[in-house]
Amino acid sequence: MRGTGFLSLHGVDKRFPLKEGELHVLGDISLDIRQGEFVSIVGGSGCGKSTLLRLLVGLEEASGGSLRLDGVPIRGTDPARGIVFQDHRLYPWLTVEDNVLLALANSPLDKAERLARVHAHLELVGLKHFARAWPAQLSGGMSQRVAIARGLVNRPKVLLLDEPFGALDALTRAQLQDELARIWQTEGITTVLVTHDVDEAVLLGDRVVVMEPRPGRIRRIVPVDLPHPRHREHPRLAELRSDILQDFTRRQAIA
Amino acid sequence: MSEATRKRPDLRGWVVPGVLLLLWWLATALEWVDTRLVASPAAVLEEAWQAAASGELWQGLAASLGRNLSGFALGSLAGLAFGGLLGLSRLAERLVGPTFHALKQIALFAWIPLLSAWFGFGEPAKVAFIALAVFYPVALNSFEGIRATRHELLEVARVLGLTPAQRLLRLVLPSAAPAIFTGLHLGLIYAWLATLGAEYFFSAGPGIGNTMIDGREHFEMDQVIYGLLVVGSVGLVLNRLAAWIEARALAWRGGGR
């Protein structure tokens, strides 16, 4: 089990300088995420949800406010924060095994321990027989499983997921959502999922953070009061989904 | 393509050479052409046989291949180092990039007067000329290959906390490898062209190009055509060799699909 992994965001603000003026992407985001919690962030395009994740992983720096992991300010990237992008971003010249192994390139473990860790994580995502395959030989869903294994192999305190299933077909997506729920439960890792799929957000999240654009802000936070594992046909999920969807449709009607 | 059809060698590529050979033989046998200008296949074969038996062929080939490979080695090493530096360092690109791009506009053969002034007309000048021919494609492709490293994959390297050395060895170089191989492959082709060019433009010496020049001077067309065939075959072998090495080194690109 992981001992730690709570996130606290306070007054987070992000602006990108433009040729003239600036682009205000995120404004005054405050959010606390408990250790082991699964938080979904949902919003339309341009609401800054991916930027928020990039701040959390350390690929971008906030213009204002603070982001902390276990009380320590987040600066730059760190093995304590793993991420899975929408495109799997595997290195095509490395085998599946070597791609996951790459995440342990600077780990203090010796070679045998690293390999054991890699194989355990490939097994976790159901790909232990594909260790020697090239990424080009994998389907989209399989590649994304490898990316999840790579994100987890370093035993991070937080797993960040940036629309990880957005590019997959509906059947594969449903399958991977179930797998992610299972992995999250076995690993007990704090997880932040950014998605534009409201079904996915309510199915997986303990809480759903609904965002609105220009600048990106938290509109409201919806708790999903259902125990895990969940069934996607549960009527409560459908209720929550239509409730959240109304936020978007109503706003569109006004606009 | 199914397994069964793949196993049989595809012979269709031999049709055109076969027809040409037949036409050549007919043209000389039926005297459609002056056989003093176009030697018959039999005469060329006889010439080749004699050259091989007397060792003349092997001497010439060894001399040409020797300078071809030393020029290629020098030019490709320099090209890799230069292209790599330009690709990895923005400062180096700002400083020498414009000069490099301007100099590469100068046709290769325009360098000959300068090269002969610096290196004379002997072996060093020939090797330098070949090295120069190899340098440009290797440098340019290495540079562009390194610059084309995908931004998304660089972000992964940041997230995984790779050191600069790890980034170079695990990301930048493998990602640039296809382009670098293209450069080396082009370099190999240019090197062989330049080897023949060097034998024409610099002083006479042993070499397959000089065999052809001698043939022309003595009006022995069988010798010229035999030289032509040797040059073509060597080019073909070098090309195949490069393609074979490339396919093995870049197995990940095939993906088995």
TrEMBL record, chain A:
<feature type="domain" description="ABC transporter">
    <location>
        <begin position="7"/>
        <end position="240"/>
    </location>
</feature>
<keyword id="KW-0813">Transport</keyword>
<dbReference type="InterPro" id="IPR027417">
    <property type="entry name" value="P-loop_NTPase"/>
</dbReference>
<dbReference type="InterPro" id="IPR050166">
    <property type="entry name" value="ABC_transporter_ATP-bind"/>
</dbReference>
<protein>
    <submittedName>
        <fullName>Sulfonate transport system ATP-binding protein</fullName>
    </submittedName>
</protein>
<keyword id="KW-0067">ATP-binding</keyword>
<dbReference type="Pfam" id="PF00005">
    <property type="entry name" value="ABC_tran"/>
</dbReference>
<comment type="similarity">
    <text>Belongs to the ABC transporter superfamily.</text>
</comment>
<dbReference type="GO" id="GO:0005524">
    <property type="term" value="F:ATP binding"/>
</dbReference>
<dbReference type="GO" id="GO:0016887">
    <property type="term" value="F:ATP hydrolysis activity"/>
</dbReference>
<dbReference type="InterPro" id="IPR017871">
    <property type="entry name" value="ABC_transporter-like_CS"/>
</dbReference>
<dbReference type="InterPro" id="IPR003593">
    <property type="entry name" value="AAA+_ATPase"/>
</dbReference>
<keyword id="KW-0547">Nucleotide-binding</keyword>
<dbReference type="InterPro" id="IPR003439">
    <property type="entry name" value="ABC_transporter-like_ATP-bd"/>
</dbReference>
UniProtKB/TrEMBL annotation, chain B:
<keyword id="KW-1133">Transmembrane helix</keyword>
<feature type="transmembrane region" description="Helical">
    <location>
        <begin position="168"/>
        <end position="193"/>
    </location>
</feature>
<feature type="transmembrane region" description="Helical">
    <location>
        <begin position="12"/>
        <end position="30"/>
    </location>
</feature>
<feature type="transmembrane region" description="Helical">
    <location>
        <begin position="69"/>
        <end position="88"/>
    </location>
</feature>
<dbReference type="InterPro" id="IPR000515">
    <property type="entry name" value="MetI-like"/>
</dbReference>
<keyword id="KW-1003">Cell membrane</keyword>
<keyword id="KW-0812">Transmembrane</keyword>
<feature type="transmembrane region" description="Helical">
    <location>
        <begin position="100"/>
        <end position="121"/>
    </location>
</feature>
<dbReference type="GO" id="GO:0055085">
    <property type="term" value="P:transmembrane transport"/>
</dbReference>
<dbReference type="InterPro" id="IPR035906">
    <property type="entry name" value="MetI-like_sf"/>
</dbReference>
<comment type="similarity">
    <text>Belongs to the binding-protein-dependent transport system permease family.</text>
</comment>
<keyword id="KW-0472">Membrane</keyword>
<dbReference type="Pfam" id="PF00528">
    <property type="entry name" value="BPD_transp_1"/>
</dbReference>
<feature type="transmembrane region" description="Helical">
    <location>
        <begin position="224"/>
        <end position="243"/>
    </location>
</feature>
<dbReference type="GO" id="GO:0005886">
    <property type="term" value="C:plasma membrane"/>
</dbReference>
<protein>
    <submittedName>
        <fullName>Sulfonate transport system permease protein</fullName>
    </submittedName>
</protein>
<feature type="transmembrane region" description="Helical">
    <location>
        <begin position="127"/>
        <end position="147"/>
    </location>
</feature>
<feature type="domain" description="ABC transmembrane type-1">
    <location>
        <begin position="61"/>
        <end position="242"/>
    </location>
</feature>
<keyword id="KW-0813">Transport</keyword>
